[in-house]
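A reminder from the course coordinator: this example appears on the midterm review sheet, so study it carefully.

Given structure:
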């Protein structure tokens, strides 16, 4: 242990290491137990907040800050260990009744510490030995000329106020960001021993050699803060992007209809899948962490991408594949003119002729429009009824495996559509069914089957099946007469 008097002989007294000065560097630190002397030669274990600052191992009394950090900017360490005085390396040892201990030898003295877990002990040993490796790798310098050459080289690598990492790199630039991060990291590792050595001189000459202090402040602390802050910002941003992606894809499924609309969303999601792999590589390369981060999110995103890629192109929809014909139910007859793309109710016991719908194909073959009753969209996978004045849509999705149209309910909608029957189309009959568990239970349909006379477009047949519900919404909910 180094007393205050001894410390003052090692360039700086303890007052030099105020927490205000030390915390600027984002030092590696945490709570450890330290074996310390007590009266009558006894030793006891005390919790201390320890951190590595330049080539100093600083040991503070426990503070009230987060994770035991000093809670006042003028807190100073109880004492410190000068890393370059350490002989050998930090190593684990065994002591009865003490969990996860390790030791540091300084000449004839040994400093004993204990961590809270094996992982924390290994992390501290790695931190200390890495700092020792950097300090011991400082090459000998012949004189002022060589030092000046090295300073010039560092200025080239870390130009004043020119080095920076993007704060929030998007997924598409993640690999380039990591490449830049790696370049700074490797350069900093290579030159930090020299900068450490120079910083000691700059600190020792405090108030007299401002040029050296400015040089260190711009390159040393600046680069390390950039790396620490840049990594923190990037990982936080990536976490937000990755965890929100499934919800965004589900929203796209609710609001988009064709591949043309989904192209950007699908490509962005594929970039996020790549980002998950890049994130794992980053954690493994720079933190030796092999955890499979975001495994469930990756599986869910890939599954949603696969579903979105089944959506058709708008050009794939054509009425040329279908025929004209009629659709009949109890009390109603509808006629579909395939050449003109018009669906008309020609007989109804429940409707006044003035309310007979006349849906016309408008512009493109996947839209049917009636001025009173709204718009039908169809993309071979989904059927959607919408109305300019209605706060919800009625949507059915086609399930090939079951051969049914099943009603789809949106996620987190403020207003939900009425619950309707599902429908199955077989051998010219469209029958009302209920697929799986439904909550709420679907309303009893006005009729339970329709007779279809020809090969008609599926959305035309489904429109007739759902028209009683559409009519109820338009006249009762929207009050359209």
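Designed residues:
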């Amino acid at each position: 242990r180094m007393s205050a008097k001894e410390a003052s002989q090692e360039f700086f007294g303890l007052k030099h290491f105020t927490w205000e000065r030390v915390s600027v560097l984002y030092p590696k630190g945490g709570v450890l137990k330290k074996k310390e002397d007590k009266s009558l030669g006894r030793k006891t274990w005390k919790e201390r907040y320890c951190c590595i600052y330049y080539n100093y191992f600083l040991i503070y009394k426990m503070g009230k800050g987060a994770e035991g950090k000093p809670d006042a900017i003028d807190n100073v360490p109880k004492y410190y260990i000068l890393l370059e005085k350490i002989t050998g390396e930090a190593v684990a040892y065994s002591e009865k009744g003490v969990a996860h201990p390790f030791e540091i030898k300084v000449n004839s003295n040994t400093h004993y510490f204990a961590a809270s877990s094996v992982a924390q002990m290994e992390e501290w040993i790695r931190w200390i030995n890495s700092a020792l490796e950097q300090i011991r790798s400082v090459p000998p310098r012949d004189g002022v000329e060589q030092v000046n050459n090295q300073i010039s080289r560092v200025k080239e690598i870390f130009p004043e106020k020119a080095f920076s990492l993007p704060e929030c790199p998007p997924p598409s630039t993640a690999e380039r960001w990591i490449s830049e991060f790696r370049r700074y990291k490797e350069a900093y590792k290579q030159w930090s021993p020299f900068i450490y050595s120079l910083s000691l001189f700059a600190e020792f000459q405090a108030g007299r050699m401002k040029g050296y202090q400015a040089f260190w402040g711009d390159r040393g602390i600046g680069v390390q803060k950039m790396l620490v802050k840049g990594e923190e910002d990037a990982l936080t941003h990536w976490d937000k992007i990755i965890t929100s992606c499934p919800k965004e894809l589900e929203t796209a499924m609710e609001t988009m209809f064709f591949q043309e609309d989904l192209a950007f969303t699908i490509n962005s999601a594929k970039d996020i899948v790549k980002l998950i792999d890049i994130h794992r590589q980053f954690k493994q390369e720079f933190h030796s962490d092999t955890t499979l981060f975001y495994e469930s999110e990756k599986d869910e995103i890939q599954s949603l991408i696969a579903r979105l890629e089944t959506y058709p192109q708008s050009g794939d929809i054509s009425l040329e594949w279908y025929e004209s014909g009629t659709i009949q139910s109890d009390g109603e007859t509808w006629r579909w003119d395939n050449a003109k793309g018009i669906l008309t109710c020609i007989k109804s016991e429940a409707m006044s002729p003035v309310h007979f719908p006349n849906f016309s194909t408008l512009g493109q073959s996947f839209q049917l429009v009636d001025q009173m009753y709204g718009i039908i969209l169809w993309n071979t996978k989904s059927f959607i009824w919408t109305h300019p004045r209605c706060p919800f849509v009625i949507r059915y999705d086609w399930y090939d495996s079951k051969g049914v149209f099943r009603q789809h309910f949106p996620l987190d909608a403020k207003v939900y559509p009425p619950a309707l029957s599902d429908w199955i189309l077989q051998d010219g009959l469209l029958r009302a069914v209920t697929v799986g568990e439904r909550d709420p239970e679907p309303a009893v349909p006005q009729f339970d089957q329709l007779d279809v006379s020809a090969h008609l477009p599926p959305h035309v047949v489904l429109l007739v099946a759902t028209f009683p519900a559409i009519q109820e919404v338009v006249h009762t909910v929207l009050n359209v007469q």
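The chain has nine helices and 19 strands. Residues 210-255 form the longest helix (46 residues).
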